Amino acid sequence: MTGEQLSVARKLVPGRECGACTVCCKVLAIKAPELKKLPEVLCTHCTAGVGCAIYNARPQVCRDWHCGWRYLAFLGDEWRPDRSGILIEAATADIPQEFPRRDGLKFVLRTGALNAVLWPALQSAIASLVDDGVPVLLGIPGPHGYEGRNVFLNYAIAGAVAARNCRAIVEQLVIAVEAGVRAEHRKIDLNADD
Ligand code: SF4
Ligand code: SF4
């Protein structure tokens, strides 16, 4: 799996379904007029581990959105967000202006699963992306009612990736998590435009 392969997928993986995963129905903040909810609050239409009670009538925002695992064929079943604790999203925000690429990927760690950065498969995926120059961010959840923080990884771990130094990569990921947790988190206004 190369970073290039990871970043270019635009079509859903044929035959791959959400199954019992309902992670995005809890983790994401939704600001659409027809459905507003805070992050880390289960949607009122969702039964955790079962699915959406209004699936056939769900809002357009829900129809249009899929996580990275649904797009990226290289990721095995163990990457399904309810199994991995990691929600992958396309990302364009919080990439430094001077960085040559804008089409990034964000690995959102779930509340209570920040130690997912110790997972070798995640380390390997991030290293591959950074090696290929794809912008990579860690998404660190905020306290209840507050926005998460995105930590841009490329500059911090480029040296460790170039040296193929797994230990240093892990150290930098742990530092990134700590920085994201310590950072100031903005209170969410579900009615504000982003
Ligand atoms: S997080 Fe991904 S796999 Fe899970 S329910 Fe949402 S789109 Fe499906
Ligand atoms: S309406 Fe359905 S699909 Fe949309 S967030 Fe709620 S439970 Fe999930």
Average pLDDT figure? 91
The radius of gyration is 16 Å
Which band does the percent of strand residues land in? 15-25%
Discrete helix count? 8
Can you count the beta strands? 8
Shape designation: globular
> Main sheet: which strands, in order across?
5-6-7-8
Describe the structure.
- The protein is 31% helix and 16% strand.
- It is built from eight helices and eight strands, in the order ααββββαααββαββαα.
- It is of the alpha+beta class and 194 residues long.
- It has a domain at 3-12 and 67-182.
- A hairpin with an 8-residue loop joins strand 7 and strand 8.
- Residues 18, 21-24, 66-67, 69-70, 80-81, 87 line the site of one iron/sulfur cluster.
Question: Secondary structure elements and their pairing?
Answer:
Elements: H1 3-8, H2 24-27, E1 30-32, E2 35-37, E3 46-47, E4 51-52, H3 60-64, H4 68-71, H5 81-84, E5 86-91, E6 104-109, H6 120-131, E7 136-140, E8 149-152, H7 154-162, H8 166-182
Parallel strand pairs: 6-7
Antiparallel strand pairs: 1-2, 3-4, 5-6, 7-8
